[in-house]
Amino acid sequence: MAALGQHSDGTSAEPGIGGLAVPYVGYLQAQRAPAARRTPVARSPSSAYNSILVAVRVLFRAAFGTAYGRKEDTIPDMLSRDEFLRHLRDDLMHLYEPRRLRSSPLAELFGVAGRFDTASALQRILTDAIRSLEPPAEEPSHSRAWDVYEPLFYRFVEQLDQAAVADQMRLSVRHLRRKEAGALEVLADLLWSRYGGTAPAVAPQPSAGDGASAVGDLSWLSQDSQPQTTDLNAALPGVLDLARRLAEEHRVRLDASLPGGLPTVPGDPVALRQCLLSLLAVVIPRAAGGTVEFGAQQQGAQVALWLRCAAYPSGPKPAVGDEAAGLNMAAELARLCGGRLDLDADARAFDARLWLPALAQSPVLVIDDHGDALQLLERYTLGTRYSFIGSRDPAQALPLAAQHAPCAIVLDVMMPNVDGWEVLGRLKQDPATAHIPVIVCTIMAQKEFARLLGAAAFLKKPVSRQAFLAALDEVLRGTERTDGTNGTEGAKGAAGGGARPGPAA
């Protein structure tokens, strides 16, 4: 049997089967962020890329009418164009709220309604459509293409508020609102032209007992371009809440032991959640009137999650219904998370143990006097091997670096009283911090100064998540090549703080 087997306002998503994680821990974190803009090249503002955007709108109007809101702008017996635009904006504003996405009319239109992954499938359609509008890096900085893409990406994929996006784009909030409205029209045109005529065909859903078909429906988990990670401290309470509800229904005592401070593990949060729920859906009904143990513990470089029922109170129970399919699904989800499911279950008892590798954390110190910039970069590190330490006070750079021994320091330049260049000089002159690589992250186009003063890398604001994490990865690799160990160990050793395990491979 064992072969297979917060939103922008800071609130948490409603827990539910098939739910998504909070931003930069769930799907948004694994999506590719926009490539850093390169120095503008001499191109006409009416570039080929801008022509594509215009062509999309022209084709749409030719197919569905020229005036938005006309009766012709409808999908027969479904949505008008205005309703479509309203639902699109609503779904984007609640992109990480599974309950809202599962009930969206757009799920029906896009052909993903009624699936176990309706919310995540709709989320992928919307984020993929936004990413398809990303201009090439050589596109001029002030072109219409960037004006369309950046408001969509920062407002909805990154879920930043308008004030933060306006600050990133160096616009007034009023000007940003106009750009955002225009960008939503372009995105609506693109999606309407793809799905407006007829909804895409959807393969028949497998029956509950069709284990092979159900496992085949998980192919999207193995097609992500970047690995995802799960914060167990955030994911397990939601699973425990659902487990308690099921246990209450079957008169089962749930004995939970979930300590705090568990490490981050590889794997998609939805996949891990569903793996555990599949196991719970088998053991709790079988243990009616008895006790089920649910626990977690770090054991060396691994984390063990277990579910146990020593003996079913009502005696041996033969396998029924779709239990085998559920256990096969659980084991396949464990594999897709990079883990292993050890299962010892028969007609008398149940013992399942899920093993997942623990990911070590490498601290990153960020010095920037803008609170919004600190919040953005902190969100970029969520669900990664990097832990965030931030300060708005440049005078705290040396004390914090000495205290935390970060693997890298990210430093702004334009700060009050003392600029980043002076702070960089102090860091490089102090023996306790001179070895720590510094990444200069600023709106100023002064890359050569950064290089001359000893910075390991340079990032021009606004910076994407992809570029930020790539810079951290690169300087950490450089540290490993220099001292023959991982970046965290090198920093700790040089500061006299002792070594600690490095990031998992």
Task: Using brief descriptors, characterize the structure shown.
disordered N terminus, single chain, disordered C terminus, alpha/beta, 505 residues, five-stranded parallel beta sheet, five-stranded mixed beta sheet
Would you kindly provide a written description of the structure presented here, covering whatever features stand out?
It is flat and about 75 Å long. With 505 residues, it is an alpha/beta fold. Helix 3 crosses helix 9 (173-195) and helix 12 (269-286) runs antiparallel to helix 13 (323-336). Residues 1-47, 58-77, 197-216 and 484-505 have low confidence and may be disordered. The chain has helices at residues 27-30, 48-64, 81-93, 98-102, 105-109, 118-132, 144-157, 162-169, 173-195, 211-216, 232-249, 269-286, 323-336, 371-381, 397-404, 420-429, 447-452, 465-483, 487-495; strands at residues 229-231, 253-257, 264-266, 291-299, 302-309, 340-345, 350-357, 362-367, 386-391, 408-411, 438-442, 457-460.
